[in-house]
Amino acid sequence: MGAVPYDTYARQLGQLVTEASSGRWERLADDVHAALNGQAASQLRSLVPRQVRRETGSFFTTGPVRNSFEHLLPPVPAQADAPTYWDPTCGAGDLLLAATAKLPLAATPARSLALWNRRLRGHDLQESYVTAARMRLVLALLERHRLAGSDEPLAADRVAGALPLLQVGDGLQQLHSLGRPARFGGSLLLNPPYGMAEAGPACTWSSGSTSLAATFTAAAAAALRDGSRLTAVLPDVLRSGSRYRAWREQLTGLLDVHEVKPHGMFDIHTDVDVFLLSAVRRRGGPVRSFSWWPEPEAAEGQTLNDLFEVRVGPVVDNRDPRTGPEAPYLTARDLPAGGEMGLPQRTRNYPKRLIAPPFVVLRRTSRPGQGSKGASRGAGVLVVGDRPVAVDNHLIVASPRAAGVDRCRALLKVLEQPEIALWLDERIRCRHLTVTAVRDLPWNGTDHLASMSSPPPHAKAQ
Ligand SMILES: C[S@@+](CC[C@H](N)C(=O)[O-])C[C@H]1O[C@@H](n2cnc3c(N)ncnc32)[C@H](O)[C@@H]1O
Fold it and tell me: What's the average model confidence in pLDDT over 78-97?
């Protein structure tokens, strides 16, 4: 297994470097620009089969996400020494390319290369990616010199020995090997593979099948010297999923998180939502209070949880026995886009907990920016009827703690508000709505409740 077909492109880049380093720029400027901006990713898609890209966790950071990443990297102060930038899963070097924008140029390409040779470090399991990364970094250096008007040729032996700290190797092992006192004192850049693997026996924040991105990031945080920086592109499930709460705690135990930026889809070809993280290894002192998502800003500070009991539907259809009383069975398939419905026609024998109407259900699988059947994300459906219902586990159920169907109707109105859809998108970008996110929804339905007689028993003191 491996990305061997990518060799073809790595060799093309080598030829481009040979021509550019001898100063023959007339025909090359466009080719070099393409090689530095998106071509490496498009060549990956055309040369390496999708299955291999998946298995090897290969997708390269390009376009808007690379621009946002570059903006997160702080400038190097004029008097200070440039840090060493290290991407332990460097692919074709896009994060390192973003970092070179912060590196100074010397008087000639050869002198700049001598500096960059010491400042740029990378690892990847795929040799062709490492070669491509080296060649692209040399092209970036030559292009900057050309734009600065100092484009002297670069000798072939310098090109051949360029960027020796970019090596084929296991980045995770490298990170793990950096225990005290040899922790990394430079700037760590990270967009790791996003596949799943078993957490190791020493892992304190997860067990079983775990996102490799989480494993790499935790190892990166542990490998950093105090005061050193981590800048990362990561799958949004790590920021917003309850599965990764302990991971977030592990990270904030070690790092001062300076910025968390939800980004949306990685790129138009890669349907994975990501966020950007900028953090610095804490030098000691207390953990700074920090939120991974926007805090609910509710009228009177209330959230949905104050007024509704929120839980996942209990029925796991293919696992639960078909015993017990026959009950109406509510599934996502049978839901209208929004509004109200009576008891579902579908029935099922179910031995465990049934839920008494009225209640509001939301689909768990709605994507950011859109809901099912044309409704907005988080659109709810009110279920009324006189028999308890077996509710499928693809649905989230909100049962009013008081005020019955009127409060459910008020909730439908709250869920229709565009700002609630926006809030949900910011709060949770990964595929599935979570119970925690729904519980935290800001409740601004007081107008609809003004006519109600009894105050909600679980409302916070005002
Ligand atoms: C999501 S890609 C990102 C590449 C690059 N960081 C970027 O942002 O463009 C992840 C990369 O990790 C590499 N990779 C996977 N497992 C690795 C490991 N154990 N050590 C080093 N690299 C690894 C893959 O070959 C792939 O190039």
Answer: 93
